Model the fold of this input.
Amino acid sequence: MLSPLFSFAENHIQAIVAQWTVTTYAQSEEYAKRKWIPGFLDEVERETTWLLRHILQQAQKGGSIDYRLVENIAEDRKEMGTSQFNFIRSSSELGDILLRYIQQAISTQQIQASPEDYQTFQRDIYAILQQMGWHVEKGYESS
Done:
């Protein structure tokens, strides 16, 4: 997974997470329940940024990704009363936003990538999302 697209995504992680926060998370059931808690949204953004950066860095190294962090976050979300379905959907939407961000960067020539490079990146992101879904399930089952 040694693709310049992973590095580009990592370098633009703040913008990707900010877009996800506004378009997805701020509309979620979880946020609606907790938006009155001071600092809650900032903490979700920090956690999401940290997790996404961790996954992108591990993917760039070409090794296996440690998904225990996903399981731990899933355990927390279950304890908070967030449904597994909503948590997985939110994670998937983060992946979709990441892919759209990269597509836009390619189309505006912020980064050069062949169609094959983008297809490989897209395949890798979908594989990561699939693994995340399985580990979310494990996190929900373990608590």
Remarks:
- Helices lie at 4-11, 13-23, 29-34, 40-61, 68-80, 84-107, 115-142.
